[in-house]
Amino acid sequence: MTRKMTGLLLAIVMCVSLLAGCGGKKETTAPADGGSAPAASQASGESVTLKLTHCQPEGSPVDLATEEFARLVEERTEGRVKIQLFPANMLGAESVTRDMVKEGGCDIVCLGSAANNYNNAMNLVTACYLFENIEEADYMLFESRFAQKYMHEDYLANDNVVYLTSWVQSPRQTMTTKAFTTPAELKGIKLRVPAGIPVWEAAWNAMGALTVSMGLDDAFSGLQQGACDGVEGPIDQLYFNSFQEVAKELIMTQHNYYSYQMLMNNNSFNALSEADQQVLRDTALELDAYHDQLRDENVDKLLEDLKSQGVNVTVLSEEQLAAFAELCKPAIDQNMDSWGQECYDEFISELEEFRASH
């Protein structure tokens, strides 16, 4: 069953649940229980506890989706597989947990930009203005032939990790101390960007910004002290890091769509029975729709809250977005050696196929 079919079925379940509910506060409906057949016992007959970590703050869509993942996996395996959650960098930053899951120090990790260090193709798919919408990103980062070849198979062959699913995040936006709507107005603004993503640095420099590599934990003080004038990221990341307290301009640049990949150590995966392996795969896939519902509701709520805190929201027109996107194109050529021409050609070909059919 494809992600779209799974999402459609879940949407029906959610609607039925809401209609059947009593009055009162409306709540987000989690995936229905019992979606997987009872799993067979592990060979040892004993339960196992898997450690799952991610960097997103507690209460964020990724965090809530992993909580639901843990609950459903334990229920559907009848307690044979339990998942212990470590949100908000409790086991270390992404660069640390990325290596932990590869080496077996952690069983499951949800990785964002740190996944680029696993797989050169990830450097390509995180390029600015590559996707036009979330639907394109969702397809190309999981269902596509490109994803199967360069992500699913590549992760397992080279990194000892099994690729369970990807949860596409809301588009990355820009929050600064000074508003801008054109590359000329962006020129000279010092923008914090994550370290180790050359295609991002090249793109922002081409658009006129002065990039400052800085850890996310240091960005708030960087804004306070003038080390940077702005940050970029999805709405929930900007909000939960309280950047609205020191930067009052939110520009909807929509410059990047990216996902959190749920990766599992291959040895930990193979230690499970085939039936329980399938429960993990099916549940991770099913929760794509649940995560997306949380994500979209969260963005709308947080935007209104940001406005109430005095943040000015600037929505760029299609023409204004196109002006920034045009300047980003050379960044892909400059970094072509990172992923290779063949990888790029296959990606663009399939992306164009998807656009033509939608």
Secondary-structure blueprint of this entry?
Layout: H1 3-20, E1 48-54, H2 61-76, E2 81-86, H3 94-103, E3 108-111, H4 120-125, H5 134-143, H6 145-159, E4 161-168, E5 172-176, H7 183-186, E6 190-193, H8 198-207, E7 210-213, H9 216-225, E8 230-233, H10 235-240, E9 249-256, E10 259-265, H11 266-270, H12 274-308, E11 312-315, H13 318-334, H14 336-339, H15 341-357
Parallel strand pairs: 1-2, 1-3, 6-7, 9-11
Antiparallel strand pairs: 3-10, 4-10, 5-8, 5-9
Spatial separation of the terminal alpha carbons: 19 Å
CA radius of gyration: 21 Å
Order of secondary-structure elements: HEHEHEHHHEEHEHEHEHEEHHEHHH
Spatially, the strands of the biggest sheet line up as 2-1-3-10-4
Low-confidence regions:
6-28, 34-41
**Count of separate DSSP helical elements:** 15
Main CATH class of the largest domain: Alpha Beta
What percentage of residues falls in helices of 4 or more residues?
A: 40-55%
Strand tally, please?
A: 11
CATH names the topology of the largest domain as D-Maltodextrin-Binding Protein, domain 2
Q: Tell me the β content.
A: 15-25%
Mean pLDDT: 88
> What is the second-level CATH architecture of the largest domain?
3-Layer(aba) Sandwich
Main beta sheet: 5 strands, mixed
CATH superfamily of the largest domain: Bacterial extracellular solute-binding protein, family 7
